[in-house]
Amino acid sequence: MNFGADLMTTMPDDRARAWVRVDRAALAANARTIATRSGARLLPMVKANGYGTGAVAAARALEALDPWGFGVATPEEGVELRASGITRPVVVFTPFLPAWRDALLAHDLRPVIGDPAALAAWAPTGRPFHVELDTGMARSGVRWDDPGGLDALRAGLRSAPAWEGVFTHFHSADTDPSSAEVQWERFTALVATLPARPPFVHAANSAGALRGPRWAGDLVRPGIFLYGGSAGPDLPSPREVVRLEARVAAVRRVPAGASASYGATWTAARETTVATLAIGYADGVHRALSNRGLAALGARAVPFAGRVTMDMTLLDCGDLPVRPGDVATLLGGAVPLDAQAARAGTIAYELLTALGPRLPRLDATGDPP
Fold this sequence. Notes:
- The chain is an alpha/beta fold.
- The protein is built from twelve helices and 19 strands.
- 28% of the residues lie in helices and 22% in strands.
């Protein structure tokens, strides 16, 4: 018997449960805003599966803007782009680890060099690389106040003709532009002391790029703004890119005082309708949204009732008419991404990158499955 074939014909389409809609046109429009305001060529970040939207689809949507290349965090992410036919430069922004050498060479991926030892390990390959200077992030790169490390870096760069770029990373351009100015001054002063100026000098993330050409350099590296997240309270708002939607799987009317979900942390303040959504923290709905999150049924947002569970989330719908099969929106529309992130006590980046692999990514223009 062909059990596999029988199983495939009887299994339900998982798109009927929950899914992510991604507006690729809005993503490209957000990228165009970055390019216009900064005046620089784009090196978009498509790491973490394109911030949860699908890395390959995001890169393809951005191709229309002629980006210089794409940024990822791991060699595996770069390999995925190459396997899909992406031929532009790909920079792996996690500091170079020697164990990655063969994979980077095999797939024409650029490493980030953050210390003299890494430079000594990569430079003999004769392949392009980017150097990171730490101007205050204290995460990776040669520190601006480390004379010994800088001297060793300079010595290594004199015999590294494939050196392609140098960059730093702003830590607070979204909330404190003056800190970015300090970092930029440190950065440009350091670049002037290097053996030569490489073809690409870059520093600005979404927030830095949106503030104009001052810190744009040769490339800007937008991330969260591309995907619909705010880059700062005083900066332009992006177009919405992501909607997270789920079906109502069950509905029940409960009396005042009735509890719901694990731990009975929620009780009904009055007689109400509780709707069960077929989505939970295994899909990326943060458990921190328990008793705090919102979901929209139509144009009306209603609160989460009780703890988010692995595969289901409950809503307190009051007297709102709701039936199994209705669609609720947990991100987007009446439930803006950044506002939902604030309810969870986190940031938009985390909500997007948490979206799980069992959620299909659908084009925004398609009908619900």
